[in-house]
Each structure stands twice: as C-alpha cells, then as structure tokens.
Amino acid sequence: MKVRVLITLKNGVLDPQGKAIEGALHGMGFDGASGVRQGKLIELDVTDASSAADAEEKARAMCDKLLANPVMESYTVEVLDAA
C-alpha cells in the first residue's frame, strides 16, 4: 500500500525556515504570503500491510519511532492506494 505522511512543526514551535521562505517571497514581490510554515512529505510503500488500516497503523508506528519528533512535530498519514 502506498502511504503519504505529512510532518509539520506543532503550533507554537518556532519555524526559522518558514520565516526565511516568507522573507524570500516578500523579496520577490509576493507580499500577501504570511504565516509560512514548512514541513516534510514522505511517501512510501508498506509492502507487508494486509489492509489500508494495517498500512496506516504501520506508518504511524514508523512516525512514532523515527520519522517525526513527537516533542516538536505533528503528522498525518494518508493511505493512497494498493501498491
């Protein structure tokens, strides 16, 4: 099963990279851009999943153990389709 994981910084956690992107956008004339936050997108195949729910559960375990820092980051998991 193909899975997409979106990892973002939790609200209240400073995002210097997001601020840098926002500043660059303003410098390019995109003055309407504000509140820029950056994150990570990870797509992977969970080949040993027996169902979409199993793939989601395994991806969440991967996030909890390695992919996301639970102190600073939140994540969402989306099962896209059968691989």
From TrEMBL:
Coiled-coil parts of chain: none
Any GO molecular function: phosphoribosylformylglycinamidine synthase activity
Pathway it works in: Purine metabolism; IMP biosynthesis via de novo pathway; 5-amino-1-(5-phospho-D-ribosyl)imidazole from N(2)-formyl-N(1)-(5-phospho-D-ribosyl)glycinamide: step 1/2
Pfam families membership: PurS (PF02700)
GO terms (BP aspect): 'de novo' IMP biosynthetic process
Gene3D superfamilies in UniProt: Phosphoribosylformylglycinamidine synthase subunit PurS
Enzyme Commission number(s): 6.3.5.3
Top class in the EC scheme: ligase
GO cellular component assignments: cytoplasm
Localization terms from the record: Cytoplasm
Reaction(s) catalysed (UniProt annotation): N(2)-formyl-N(1)-(5-phospho-beta-D-ribosyl)glycinamide + L-glutamine + ATP + H2O = 2-formamido-N(1)-(5-O-phospho-beta-D-ribosyl)acetamidine + L-glutamate + ADP + phosphate + H(+)
Keyword Cytoplasm: yes
Keywords: ATP-binding, Cytoplasm, Ligase, Nucleotide-binding, Purine biosynthesis
Signal peptide interval: none
Main location: cytoplasm
Subunit structure comment from the entry: Part of the FGAM synthase complex composed of 1 PurL, 1 PurQ and 2 PurS subunits.
Membership in a protein family: Belongs to the PurS family.
Described purpose of this protein according to its UniProt entry: Part of the phosphoribosylformylglycinamidine synthase complex involved in the purines biosynthetic pathway. Catalyzes the ATP-dependent conversion of formylglycinamide ribonucleotide (FGAR) and glutamine to yield formylglycinamidine ribonucleotide (FGAM) and glutamate. The FGAM synthase complex is composed of three subunits. PurQ produces an ammonia molecule by converting glutamine to glutamate. PurL transfers the ammonia molecule to FGAR to form FGAM in an ATP-dependent manner.
UniProt protein name: Phosphoribosylformylglycinamidine synthase subunit PurS
